Amino acid sequence: MKKIVVFSNMYPSKQHPTFGLFVKNQVDLLQSAGQAVDVIAIDNPDKGKLTALKKYMSWFLRSCIYMLKNRKQLALTHAHYAFPTGVLSLVGKKMLGIPYVVTVHGGDIDKMAAKNVRIRNFTRKILQQGEAVIVVGEKLKNDVILRFGVPESKVHILSMGVNTTIFKPAAKKEVREELNLSIEEKVILFVGNVIKAKGLLELVEAFEMVKSTTPNAALYLVGSQKDTAFVEELQSFIQERKVEGIHFKSAVGQADLARWMSAADIVALPSHHEGFGLVALEAMATGTKVVATDVGGLSYLLSDGAGILVEPKNTVSLAEGLKKALDPTMLSINEVAVQQRVTANSFDSILQALLSIYHKAGKI
């Protein structure tokens, strides 16, 4: 069996266990199915011009040497993110004839390609010359086809998948005891990087409105706090408004994250943009209600009554959605739609679809 190599500019390490964890999960899934997979990735999220230059130069050099040494054993390369990662796969195809697949996650299209004409043109070339382009949501599929000229026949919608052996319903009382949470609290949970684009300023303001009618509400923000400037801005915003009941928690592993989701009354995702919204899917798999903005993949995941969709960057709409989710007399979640989304994006379903794409692209 020929092997594949996965390139990614995000991958977890012992020091940064959640950095690009979704890529590692997919690699583990492939390896568990017997597919030979090597990984060459950046596992250091540290920023700064000099740091970035060193780590990207080292990564590109290691990747090129790897392809030169292993070109006869490789069926294909798989790049996560069109730019800059896709440049490696493009070089491998041009110089060594190695076919490739590229996964578009959202930021590489919405933000990176918009930086300048050069990056946009590189992105277009990478997407057009790949054997297959995987996108994690319907909106991204339309963008790839309409904005970057990729034939529809080459574009596949495929999320990173949810591990339903980890993310599954658990008794709320038991997990709250494990996490030292009061059973009386109405727990609103946010999971993700603590950055402005996740809509956290709006969430704090909306939570303040919720507290006026639900005094026992509590908001837990679980995730990486590496954007220290924004964390300070957010904390100042909370202090200025004198909002009580907001708690910051560091990023946790998947097993602990599943417990947090099961313990919550609501998982809130007020993102300004979201390629797919894996956190929402994971919450749905635990049986917890989701309130999220009507953007990107969230629009699909929570459609048909699978959750509550609110207007992006609209504090009042977000507050109304949270209040509705907390009031059992006002909300009826479509459990059939929830189960359909979870099943369609389970690891088993994703694995079969991914292997099918690989077979067509690289004859593995």
From TrEMBL:
All copies of the Glycosyl transferase family domain together span: 172-327
Q: Which Pfam families match?
A: Glyco_transf_4 (PF13439), Glycos_transf_1 (PF00534)
Q: Name one GO molecular function term.
A: glycosyltransferase activity
- Top enzyme category: transferase
Q: What is its EC number?
A: 2.4.-.-
Tell me which UniProt keywords the record has, alphabetically. Glycosyltransferase, Transferase
Domain named Glycosyltransferase subfamily 4-like N-terminal is located at 54-164
- Keyword check for Transferase: yes
Tagged with keyword Hydrolase: no
Which PANTHER family does the UniProt record give?
SULFOQUINOVOSYL TRANSFERASE SQD2
Q: What is this protein called?
A: Teichuronic acid biosynthesis glycosyltransferase TuaC
Supply the source organism for this entry. Filibacter tadaridae
Q: What gene name is given for the protein in this entry?
A: tuaC
